[in-house]
Every structure is written in structure tokens, then in C-alpha cells.
Amino acid sequence: MFDLVTVGHFAIDLITSPKITKPKQTLGGSPTYVSLAARKLDAKVSVISKVGEDFSDRYIAWLKANGVDLSGLKRVKGASTTRFILEYSNWKRRLQLKSQAPPILPEDVPNSLQAKAIHMAPIANELSRNVADKLKTLTDTLSLDPQGFVRGFDAKGNVHLKRWEDQKLLERIDLYKSSLSEIRMVTGLADLGLAMEKIHDYGAKIVIVTRGMKSSKLLFEEKLYDIPTCKPKIVRDPTGAGDAFIGAFLAEYAKGKDPVWCACVGSASASFVVEGVGPEVFGQKEEIYARASKIYEKM
Asked: Counting C-beta atoms within 10 Å of the first and last residue's C-beta, which end of the chain has fewer, N or C?
């Protein structure tokens, strides 16, 4: 029994920004950040993903050394790993897809899988409703970050946001998390409160919207909470902050913790990730809890 299983593509990211003197290639993708954030809180984690032959053995060894179960990882012969170029400027990000791994199919999900929570985290449309249908039967909490569903790609791989709404898939979700721009693409609603209520009406018990350096929003039991942002010591790279948020949230939620506390821990975890470039900094459990406690006490 795993506490958390993340389903989606690993990626190899090339990150550039004014704060990075030399463009840095790193291991990326939601499964990386979600899993490592949860592991820091002692969650038992696994990943279902596909990569290409270019996915380094060094990445696999590093993930395993950090406690991530990779029994659900498939390296596909003749295929390439999903790769992105990420360019940051003035807090805005430009994404370019350079290669894409094969989609994850229902048969890639073991029938024997058991997990307290499963998090669907597509980054480039690699998941489908059929996969969600199967995952729903294997867990009590099916979580979704739709970022990969709201991404469109031009001929050069440049990413733009696109409208996406799959009501039948959304009806299977117990917990929803996205950014402000993404929930607008999912619901078609500009008003944040109305957009969150619409997701809730589909069936999600918990709806979370992250807003960068601004406070996050949590909708739970028909009450809207404002979750303060934990202050990092330095901001070097915002990549993976949202994934770290939900990874830490689900790690605590799997323990039966109060969702408001879970969100505060998510905010704390995200504040550590931005202090490094790529998946370098996640903070230790005691440090994460200390930052979380400071904002939880103000709730």
C-alpha cells in the first residue's frame, strides 16, 4: 500500500532565467517534484510513467536513492523522454516542448496497485479518461492537476493555454489542484470563486488553486480558505513549486490530517523548492513543519 502514487511523465528540463548564469539541464516533470516533496514527509511513494531510451540511469538511481519506487516506470525502446525548454523572465515562463514520450495507457497501470491517494499529473496530454477510470477503482482519493490538458503546442513546440473541459473525467476526481490561469481554462470562468465552485459541483471534495507568490485558495466543505505563502530565503527557480505543494498536501492528507493544515504544509514545501534550481532543495521535515506552523497559527 503506497501513500501516494503519481501518474504522468517524467521530463528532462533545460531551465534558463536571469538568475541562472548558465542554462541547466535537470530532471523534471510532476512525478519528480510531487514524489520528492511527499518523501520528505515520510510518505511511501511510487510513480507510473514512461520515458525514452535517453532517460539516464543516473536519474533512475537518484530517484531510487531518494526513496521513490519506480516499479511502474517503463523505458520505451525507440522513444524519447518528454523534454521542455523553460525560459523565465519577470516571473513569466515560456515553455517549448522538444520531445514527447508515448502516452500512458490503462494497461500500464497494475491491477494490483493500492494507494491511499493517486495523483494524475499530465504535462503534455499523456493521460486519458480511460486511465482515470481505472485509477478511480484503485484508490479512495483520486487527485488531478490538469496542467498537461490545458497546454496546446504549435509546430515548433511552443506552449500556449487552451480551453479544456472533460466533465466525465472531472466527475471522477476527489481532489483538484491547478494554477489560476489553468482553472480558467478548465471552467471557462474568470471569477476564481465561481470557477472553484464549478469544480466542486463536478464532485471534487477539495479544490486548490495556487497563485505563485500570492496566497493559495482552498475550498473545502463549502468554505473558502486563504492559505498564506511561506516566505523563502531566496527565489532562484519557481519550477515545480505547485507540484511540491500538492505532493506535500497529499502526504499529510494520507495521514488523515486537516486539509487546512495540509495546505499550509504544501505552501511550506513549495517555499523550499524555489530556493534551488530544479529538484535540488526540498527542506527537511522539521523545517517544513516549522514554516507551515507559522502560517497555520494565523488561520
From this structure: N
Q: Is the dihedral of CA 163, 141, 270, 52 positive or negative?
A: negative
d(CA 299, CA 292) in angstroms, rounded, equals 11
Q: Give the side-chain half-sphere CA count within 13 A for 222.
A: 1
- Calpha distance 212→121 (Å, rounded): 18
What Rg value do the Cα atoms of the chain yield, rounded? Answer: 17
Per-residue pLDDT at 21 exceeds 80? no
Cα–Cα distance measured from residue 259 to residue 10, given in angstroms and rounded to the nearest whole number: 27
Residue 238 — pLDDT band, cuts 50, 70, 90? confident
Averaged pLDDT, 60-75: 97
CA distance 35 to 255: 16
Contact 55, 75 (CB under 8 A): yes
Residue for grid cell 525514452 = 52
Q: How confident is the model at residue 23 (pLDDT cuts 50, 70, 90)?
A: confident
Neighbours of 269 (CB within 10 A): 32
